[in-house]
Amino acid sequence: MSTLWRSLLLVGLMSACGLAQAFGLADLSRQLGEAPVVKGAFIQEKHLRALPQPLVSKGHFVLTREHGLLWLLQTPVQQDVRLNANGIARRDAGRWQMLPGSAAGTQQNKLFFAVLQGDSSGLQRDFELNLQGSAEHWQLRLTPRSLLLKQIFTQINIDGGRFVERIELRETQGDSTLLRMPESTRADSLTETEQRDFAD
Amino acid sequence: MPTERRLPWLFLTLLLAVLALAGWQWRGAAPLSADLMTLVPGATQDALVQRAEQRMQEPLNREMLVLVGHPERDRAIALARQLADSWSASGLFEKVQWSVQADLDAVRQQLLQGRLAMLSQADRNTLIAQPHTFIEQRVQRLYDSFAGVSLVPSQEDWLGLTGLIQNSQPRPAAVQLDTASGALIAEADGQQWVLLRARTHSNAFDMHLPLQVADLLSQARLQADQSGARLLAASGLLYAANGQRQASQEITWVGGGATVGILLLLLLAFRRLRVLLAFMPVLVGMLFGATACVALFGQMHVMTLVLGSSLIGVAVDYPLHYLSKSWSLRPWHSWPALKLTLPGLSLSLATSCIGYLALAFTPFPALTQIAIFSAAGLLGAYLSATCLLPALLKGIDLQPAQWPLAVAQWLVDRREGLLRKVGSPLLLALLVVFCVAGLWRLDSRNDIRQWVASPPQLQEEAQAVARITGYQPTSQFYLVRGADQTQLLERMQALDTRLDALIAQGTLKGYMALDRLVASQAEQQRLRESLKQLPAHWQPLLALGVTPQALAGELAQLQALPPLDIDQALSGPLSEPWRALWLGADQHGVAAIVSLQGLSDASLLRAQADGLEGVQLIDRLGDLNQVFSATQLSAAELKLLSCVLIVLLLILPFGLGGALRIVALPLLAALCSLASLAWLGQPLTLFSLFGLLLVTAISVDYAILMHEQIGGAAVSLLGTLLAATTTWLSFGLLAVSSTPAVSNFGLAVSLGLFFSFLLAPWAASRPAKECP
């Protein structure tokens, strides 16, 4: 289901949070926001209740502090998605196309956009945040606060160390999505291709 | 004399009866209305169109849209919540809503039930014509990280129909849901705006409600200011409140100004306190006017009251007629003075009534009301001036000031001096040149917006609300009819194609049509048929691990889904925004509204309905403006007709020549006023024309006065001057009204009075013959 959340989470964790703990949300936020660019491979497993096997797809991502997120799915289908302040765009025949209704502030479908349109600073407003562990190995658990979100998610679990490594979304309907990003690396700048992808 | 004793009592009895009737009429709520639409001609007799118009008008008159803005979202939400709570407690509102709490289970249910009926046309076509592509796209969406949350779990909808339906629902432009609070939020100008919708119990035309709502809003504004927040509001209620405030202010100004002016004039001219009783016919006139109006129409519009307050100046003319005889008649006694002027008074009443009642035959309820109000008012004033007032003024020793007579004499001398040098024919020629040149430049302009004073602040706020929320309803809409639902939806589809083209051009922002919510039964059947071909194409789904049984089961379930009609499709929670569009069935078939967003050119919209059967653009305002222009012509005809009537009436006392002369002067005065309007750069509106129609009626009176020459030229001119001054005091003050239509009316009447006074001396046949 919607893995948009995970990207929002990444963005959110880079900027939000502020409770003081041994290893607090502020520390986590600082830690994750340190690198200007993070990239790596991802493996997505969609566990649908009715399917014996999860739907597995692979690709890689580029997350930047300034330009947003590139999400390039490579197998079994190819699909490039870009997420930035303007909304979500999908690459179609080499050109980025904004998804209708995804542009910041143009979403209304009452129930639907609720989930699509989380804003980075709003994470704490929407979820109860519970952080455990240390800077090298931490777990963040998100429990929805609002009635609306409770009808969609039961819980979101995020694990990581230097970078986010694992995100699990549990849906109220019984499906879940697991996203792994085992080998993320830090970069100081974007490659030319990546720059082009973010530019147009 | 017995009549002199009996008349006052007879009149007092009548007055008591009218007072009792008025008391009964005003026993509960004031029978006043502020609904502009009751003032304009019912453009249509078509009940369906009327119902559609009401449906579209209702939210304007009952709903208020408020934006609570603060740079911090939480503060804005807290404030909106607080506001909603206190408004709910106020008892004025049926519903105050600031947050959305959706029942997702009900939405799921509706989506599942509507899988065939609610699928969009594009998706339907893909499924029917390219089933292979359809399945491939579905598989892609299953992998897609950004396809969004589907409310229905995939095992209940492997084909992904519900997700497609979700995505095709309309999304009002700039508003988003704050998931934590459920508030609807728009971001603009560095502020977080929380949307608050309040719906009142009754509508804007309940006289008290708009003011109460406006008060509540200004309290809320104060509160918002204190917490550093801003409030923006848009509602027809606020315009109504503003209109009412303004009307009562103007009644005070126009009525009060005219009253003070006239009382002062009476005192200055006649120098007796008791002469102030001459104001009594004015009060009686207002009473008779209002009572007749409520009796005939059930209620009275505030605009009638504003325009009607100008009656003061005309009503006071009756007592002035015989009071002014005190300059020539020494000693002055009330009853003999009345007797001397009674024929003139009666003629004046008759001609004025003819002029006013001519207004009643225009198709404008507004003018009919004013006509009835004025005619009844004049009758009341006439009766009180002839039956009661002389008794009250009996024995008064009138010693009028001599200076007004001196002024009048001076004017008469000036005029005669001028005539000796120039001569009437040359003056007339000059006047004709003035008129022709002016009329040449005159342009006519009519717009219903002239009837409403739109304060810039309200307009700016409404525009800001439209900009921030992206919600820009237009007053135009389409009414689509069909013999049955299938035909209706097909006709809408034809219209959609054209409207989509307008959207692509950028001339239209958006529209809502029921065929976007639900497919016709024939289309639903076509889709159901095409499901049979799916097993040949669903291999990619099987490859994911979906079992053939699961897919076959889903297919069987889909095929067994009952077809949905419009009523059923509208019953679910997703359909809420669509419900107002459905007008249902009547004996001729079914009908629905297609609403539009974003202002567009009305003629362009009208062209879209060309050649589409059963599709009609409803543009009430545009239609009205056309009716206005058409009415200008018929008003001019009425004016001529009323003149003919007046001539016929005057032939008896004055002969054909005298009658023609007396009527020609007001007509010439009207022409001069028209020309002056043009020279002043003012347009001719329906209202200025009606004003001139009135002036003809009033100024016939002056011509009669001057023609009769009772007491000599100077005394007659003085009588005319007094009458014109009092009339101008009331009508002229209308010119300061902030409602363009009213001020236009005042200006036209003022000009008309000025020229009538200027030309009136030519009504006297004798001096005219002596002079050249």
TrEMBL record, chain A:
Pfam families: LolA_3. Monomer. InterPro entries: LolA/LolB/LppX, OM_lipoprot_carrier_LolA-like. Residues 175-200 are annotated as: Disordered. Residues 1-22 form the signal peptide. This is Outer membrane lipoprotein carrier protein LolA. The keyword Membrane does not apply. CDD domains: LolA. Keywords: Lipoprotein, Protein transport, Signal, Transport.
Automatic annotation (TrEMBL), chain B:
The chain crosses the membrane at residues 251-270, 277-297, 344-364, 370-393, 422-440, 638-656, 686-705, 717-736, 742-764. It comes from the Bacteria. Coiled coil: none annotated. Keywords: Membrane, Transmembrane, Transmembrane helix. This is Membrane transport protein MMPL domain-containing protein.
